[in-house]
Amino acid sequence: MVPLDFADATGDVRLEHPLAPGIGPGTFDLERLTLAKVSGLWRLEATFAAPVTSLDDVRAARDRLVTMLPQTIDVYLDTVPDAGHIAALPGRGFRVPAGEAWDRVLVASSIQDLNEDDVVHALRVTASGRRLIATFPGDAVPGTVRGMLAVVLATSPTGEGRVRAVGHAGDCRVWDDDRCRLEGDGPPVLDALALDVRVDRPLSLTYATGARPKVSGTPVVFQRGTLLSAAPVLPSEIAKGRLATVLDAAGEALGTAIVLNVVGDTAAMEVVGKSPIEGAHTVVFAAAGER
User: Fold this and answer.
1) Which of 148, 181, 207 delimits the end of a domain?
2) List of residues 6+ apart from 215 with CB closer than 8 A
3) pLDDT at 112 over 70
């Protein structure tokens, strides 16, 4: 596989993490990310705007202190067409479009508590100047990478998925999730190799060809507020609880919907999120079993 090398705009961190010892401006500002195979192992290097500094004696449990890096990096990979997951890992709070489903995610974190399908944890995570360096097993990437999405999160010793949530900021001097959150709106993604991170909108992957996969969707035949319906569908294939990505006429992902019921050849759905979406044109259903 050709090594991946992506530059990221500086100063585009979308959430605010309160300053604390070891946490200053630029801590979560990703400038460059590379992924390449070196001596049989996959090596990820993430360069930040500020030096990567470890945090010592962080309490992860009543009787457990840990040393950790403040950044957690997820790299979602699409290597298999028309298969995979659209929901990100626990605590991340976002989804990807159904046509861009990921089938492998590399997680570079000092705390490895996730036990999810298709997750590969780094064998080792270290800091060198402004770089976070993580090594993964040689079989971590199962094939040719079609598309990828890298997100930067704040490591949490106790939070869901071991990443910090969005909410009232509070006092970060003790790195306590109950007292210290990220300030902002939407998913707890501080920085990303993505065009845009918006509330209730799927995050698109980046594809080497520059063009995202073209998928054939089911036309939306009715929309009112957060309710919509699409037809024709096969009742034997679409059932209550199935997720779908809502697209506009240009194929841009507008949001995620969940099937409420299927009557005849029509699926009734409700948009997931706080507000209605406008311009729904087609829906693309996620793989069976994806919630």
Assistant:
1) 207
2) 98, 99, 251, 284
3) yes
